[in-house]
Amino acid sequence: MRLRVLAVGKLKDAGLDKACEEYVKRSRSFLPIDRRALRTNDAVLDEARSSCGRTVVLDERGEQPTSEEFAGWLRTWRDQGVRAVAFAIGDAHGFGDQHRNAADKVMGLSRLTLPHRFAQAMLCEQLYRAGTILAGHPYHH
Fold first, then answer.
1. I want to staple 107 with a disulfide (CB 3.0 to 4.6 A). Which of 18, 62, 115, 130 is the partner?
2. Quick check: pTM over 0.90?
3. 2-140 has which CATH code?
4. Cβ of 98: how many Cβ atoms within 10 Å?
């Protein structure tokens, strides 16, 4: 299963970009991650829908799973034969109701409002963590 992190705008902070790339690199043997920066919320969602899989919109109002529950979502989708899961990170104003309603899942990383650049780094780490949980790797503990 291919995981796609689609976000509005490039990460301008070299440290956060490096952290994301480190988790993308580590994740290759568990769950491959592809990151892509796009210009608008609509472009992110259009790209997500073209992935032929599931779309997860990140939003502070979304479901906030534990790391194990998040890994369970990915396990279920993988076992159902889903080929790709796209995670959509919007601009500073987030996604509207129509975007959230069109998603397969709406997920929050925290009840706190996070800058989308932090959200991307946190998401990449959680995707790596989910891969290690599914593989029985000890990283999670």
1. 62
2. yes
3. 3.40.1280.10
4. 8
